[in-house]
Amino acid sequence: MNVPAPGLPARVRIHEVGARDGLQNEKTAVPTAVKAEFIHRLAAAGLTTIEATSFVHPKWVPQLADAEQLFPELGDLAGVHLPVLVPNERGLDRALALGATRIAVFGSATETFASRNLNRTVAESLAMFEPVVARAKEGGAHVRGYLSMCFGDPWEGPVPVHQVVRVAKALLDLGCDELSLGDTIGVATPGHVLALLGELGEAGVPTDRIGVHFHDTYGQALSNTLAALGHGVTTVDASAGGLGGCPYAKSATGNLATEDLVWMLDGLGIETGVDLTALTATSAWMAEQLGRPSPSRTVRALSHKE
Amino acid sequence: MNVPAPGLPARVRIHEVGARDGLQNEKTAVPTAVKAEFIHRLAAAGLTTIEATSFVHPKWVPQLADAEQLFPELGDLAGVHLPVLVPNERGLDRALALGATRIAVFGSATETFASRNLNRTVAESLAMFEPVVARAKEGGAHVRGYLSMCFGDPWEGPVPVHQVVRVAKALLDLGCDELSLGDTIGVATPGHVLALLGELGEAGVPTDRIGVHFHDTYGQALSNTLAALGHGVTTVDASAGGLGGCPYAKSATGNLATEDLVWMLDGLGIETGVDLTALTATSAWMAEQLGRPSPSRTVRALSHKE
């Protein structure tokens, strides 16, 4: 049943991360042809922003070492945004050479994660992103800035809101068009989400430049999303079938499943353009390729129906 | 991090259903001693309302055929409410004979589920409950009225709000002290939840007599709970470890896991009196007894931590 709730947006743009954030966490690399079919099926299900791959050095993420082979396979997807993650200028060069028009950089709100994930301080990582963002913008590309560990950090514990706001503003000052606020270890709850969004607003960050990226490690992703929607956020990251997650969280469950999100948005009468049946079939197919069931509750429930 | 959100209650009473609603869905009956230990551990973790068992005919629910043996084992739990489900006057007699002071009846908002589950029309089931509620009240017992299929029904589809309100009012008119609104197949979304709560309010049902009972079949239970809390609801049903569910929903996941609920409420600074660590240890222990992992994301995540 389609019943709107007061104070929520009429339309949400889903930023689909399964093909990149999901598959980069697989133990064994998925064949390029399977990735290409996955992304084509996601587009056919109505997703219009599909993060395709990462131009990081193959030594660090061997699962996505086929970015050069995969990206050209997606050239026929008219009207679908295909952002790619780039860690540095070398990655940007590779992405731009293949015609990428949307790129993303991956920052951290905490020093410990910056050190462990980027081998740099937060300030050093921002300095590394500066020419990446500038050159991407010069080339006409749209730039997304991921900000991880926005709520909690496995080493530092709760992350102060003002610290997140400071790095968020720095990313926007570099020229990022959009931010994605990541709850990388899945510990956030709705009050914390609203507090961060409120402080970002006070600091002059427009809500339409903010996306939210929640993890379902403790089952909180959808209620946090609901809180963010109530604040006016209209860009939500999700992963088809719930693929991926954070290896540091030591749990089977990671990203918010796109299907669980679409179930809620459909029920609320919020437009996404996504066909849930086609999407669920895609995730069920991908789960077969990976040889294990999807952690998405909606995928499981709909797949068990006759 | 403990960050309140505006418009939510300061305290929530969790109505723990795992020992009854959870264990009645197990293929093989759990030994009485294990049930008793489970309930004692739930009480030690701070739960103050623990639905203990059901006095239904053993032919229908053989998993709870030991109600007469189990209930006296719980006599030492001072200050803990131990409601029991009774289907009819015979069940009430058995419960009252053992000193039960809180009983629950189990109604349906739809004709099809009433027919399949109770072998009666909705009107006939209300007529059956009438002397049960009256005699329980005469004996000083507190009576909860479960209302299942409040949002969707597997045979009838979406359930009209006015139909639910009509049966809800009838249960209160019989003398029920409290209602539990069940999303038995887990299809509800927050707008639908608010619409039903709003109509109940319009019909004169006080919010403090309403509990909500959401299922996580499609991952929606916690966001629906958040919506209900925003409406002022302060009684939430949940099942330790996410035990149980509805056999008609054909999915591995059913009841909202108490741990996932407590994680959210703790984060929001909403008091429950529950110790999440002790509760998670209890559910991990119960999962071992049952020989399969808990479907609760919080239990899984916390159990994977060193």
Automatic annotation (TrEMBL), chains A, B:
SUPFAM superfamilies for the chain: Aldolase (SSF51569)
Protein name according to UniProt: Hydroxymethylglutaryl-CoA lyase
GO molecular function: hydroxymethylglutaryl-CoA lyase activity; metal ion binding
Metal-binding as UniProt keyword: yes
GO-annotated biological processes: ketone body biosynthetic process; L-leucine catabolic process
Entry's family note: Belongs to the HMG-CoA lyase family.
Annotated keywords: Lyase, Metal-binding
Source species taxonomy: Bacteria, Bacillati, Actinomycetota, Actinomycetes, Kitasatosporales
Domain Pyruvate carboxyltransferase positions: 12-280
Pfam families according to UniProt: HMGL-like
InterPro entries: Aldolase_TIM, HMGL, PYR_CT
